[in-house]
Q: What sequence folds into this?
C-alpha cells in the first residue's frame, strides 16, 4: 500500500495525542479532509437541488484531490532534495495521489451514491404511495446514510487496483534507475 494516502476510516480528528514533532497533514488529518466527501453529499441531494449545485460539489471534491496531489508532490520534492531521480519521485507522488484520490474520493463514490439514490427513488415510486417530496427526501437520507458504508470497501478496492496495475509501473521504473 502506498504511503501517499490514508483510508478515510482512519481519519483522526483529535490531535491531542499526537507525538511532538509529527507534522499534521492538512489534507488527511484535519476538517479539510471532509471536502473530499462533497460530491457524495451532492449526489445524495441530487433529487432535491439543481443539477448545477451537484456539479459544483464535484468541483469542490476535485479541488481537494488536486490540492492533496500537489501537496504530496511538494513534500516528495523536499524529501528528495537534489538527489538523482527526484523528478521521477515527485511525479510518482503526484500521479499516485491524484489517481488514488480521484478514484476513491470522487469517481467511484459519486457513481455509487448516484446509483443508490436513483434505485431507491425508483423503488420507492414503484412500491409505495408516498408523495414525491417524501420519496425525494427519503432518497437523500438513504444516500447520506450509505456514505459511511461504501468508504472502506472502495478505498481497499482502489488500493488493490493500483497495487495490481499503476504501482507496478512505479516499481519497474525504480529498478531501472
A:
Amino acid at each position: 500500500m502506498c504511503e501517499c494516502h490514508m483510508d478515510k476510516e482512519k481519519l483522526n480528528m483529535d490531535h491531542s495525542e499526537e507525538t511532538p514533532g509529527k507534522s499534521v497533514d492538512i489534507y488527511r488529518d484535519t476538517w479539510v479532509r471532509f471536502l473530499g466527501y462533497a460530491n457524495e453529499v451532492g449526489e445524495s441531494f441530487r433529487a432535491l437541488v439543481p443539477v448545477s449545485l451537484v456539479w459544483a460539489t464535484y468541483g469542490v471534491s476535485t479541488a481537494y484531490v488536486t490540492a492533496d496531489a500537489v501537496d504530496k508532490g511538494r513534500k516528495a520534492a523536499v524529501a528528495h532534495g537534489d538527489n538523482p531521480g527526484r523528478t521521477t519521485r515527485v511525479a510518482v507522488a503526484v500521479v499516485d495521489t491524484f489517481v488514488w484520490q480521484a478514484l476513491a474520493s470522487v469517481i467511484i463514490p459519486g457513481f455509487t451514491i448516484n446509483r443508490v439514490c436513483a434505485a431507491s427513488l425508483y423503488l420507492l415510486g414503484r412500491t409505495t404511495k408516498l408523495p414525491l417530496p417524501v420519496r425525494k427526501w427519503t432518497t437523500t437520507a438513504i444516500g447520506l446514510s450509505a456514505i459511511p458504508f461504501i468508504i472502506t470497501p472502495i478505498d481497499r478496492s482502489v488500493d488493490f487496483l493500483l497495487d495490481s496495475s499503476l504501482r507496478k509501473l512505479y516499481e519497474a521504473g525504480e529498478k531501472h534507475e
